[in-house]
Each structure stands twice: as structure tokens, then as C-alpha cells.
TrEMBL record:
This is Membrane protein. It comes from Thauera aromatica K172. GO terms for cellular component: cytosol. Pfam families: Peptidase_M90 (PF06167). InterPro entries: MetalloPept_cat_dom_sf (IPR024079), MtfA_fam (IPR010384), MtfA_N (IPR042252). GO terms for molecular function: aminopeptidase activity; metallopeptidase activity.
Amino acid sequence: MLKRIRRWLGLERNPAEVPAAQWDRVERGLPFLDFLTPPERIRLRALALEFLASKEFHGARGLRLDDDILLSIALQACLLVLDIGLEAYAGWVGIVVYPGDFVIPRREFDEAGVVHEYEDEVLGEAWEGGPVLVAWFNEGAHPPGVNVVIHEFAHKLDMENGGVDGLPRLRAGMSRSAWAAAFSEAFDAFRAEVDRGAQTAIDPYAAEDPGEFFAVVTETFFESPHHLRARFPAIYEQLRRFYGLDPAAAARSPPEDRT
Ligand SMILES: [Zn+2]
């Protein structure tokens, strides 16, 4: 299937080579893209095709990767780098797509040097310098409140400057200390909420560590921007500068005002 998209690319690097009806169909499954202006959406489509041409997809466990799956993953991955640029995803090529959640065998040594082997059930994983693994769910089967693709590609951006620590390579003009202050304050507050057993609109998995917090609030930034802006305005502001996008502001305007 990738070959077909490559053939489109070979003919002409033009998003129009993917039929408009197909873009529309795929994008209907991604309603959080609606905040984009028409020119931004055209740019996102072009970036998605460039992304598909530069990466190698593999379907795991017999999953047949059709063009809609490839376009959907590419659009979501590229939303994160629409303003940052595709070079943020340089240095690795593989994307492995699983039919639903999957198991990763883990092996850990404890302090006594005893090896513990177990199986970790996951929805995705991003390897530093290596592939991204994501679970794919058919329409209606997706676990609620989670965006696997946005989550794993946020980890990729975090790793770009080494480690999954919640501190990606910041954009020109951004302050590392302002980022650290906003994130550490919000992370501590959120973890306290989760520890108290409070119901949180943000996935409690964010309380795991600062790296997971960054990936999860990135999902919230795109999926529920108004909530993130109201709950953690400083985080929203940092992510707005980092991604160069303002989903809450744009979503507030009537569609005719968006251009
Ligand atoms: Zn994660």
C-alpha cells in the first residue's frame, strides 16, 4: 500500500494526487484537525505525503495496512510537526502498526541481580533512534480518552534531544526555565490529584513521570484544548509556543472566521 502512495509521489508531489474524497474520509475520523485553517490543512496533507515517502510502515500480526490507515497515522504524526518541520522526525524510519493493543516482553534486573521477565501490555512505544510502535483500532473500537499516535510521536519529539524527560528541543525564543517551571508545577499538582483518587479529565497515566506527562498533555492539547487551557494555562501556553499552533483559540472562532 505504501507503494501506491509512493507512486502518487513519484508522479507529482501534490496532495491532490490523493483523491479529495479519501482525504475527507480519513480526516472525518480525526475531528481534532478541525481547528486548522484551510491553508494549514493543505500543508498538513502535503507534509503527511512527505512523511509517508520517508518512513517505512510494517503491519504486525498480519495487519493489512491500507491507505486510509497510513494516511491517518501520517496526518496525526505530522500535526505535531506542522510548524516545527519534518526534520524533527529524522534519524529513524520504522513504524510498526499492531491490530489493537499488544505485548512487549520485558526483562529487568533487581538490586540483587535477579532477572525478572514479564509481559507488558501496551498501546504503543517509541524507541530512541528506532521505530515507533502503535496500536491501530478500527472505528468505534478505540479506547476512549487516548490518542496513541499523538502520544507516541510526542515521545519521539521528547527523545530528539535525548531521553524521555518531558523536555524536548525547545523552539527559538522559548525559555527552558519557563518550560521547566510550568511543567514541574503542573506535574506535581496533577500527581497529587491522582494520588488522592480524584477523577481527572486528563488521563491519569500522565502522573507516571514527566515524560508521560508531556506526551499525555500533548494529546489533551490537541483533543481537548479548552480543557487544558482552563486547567493548566501555563502548560497550554508552553505547548502553544512549542507546536506553533493554538487549537483552543481557533476552535472558538466560527468556521468562516478561521481564514
Ligand atoms: Zn508514553
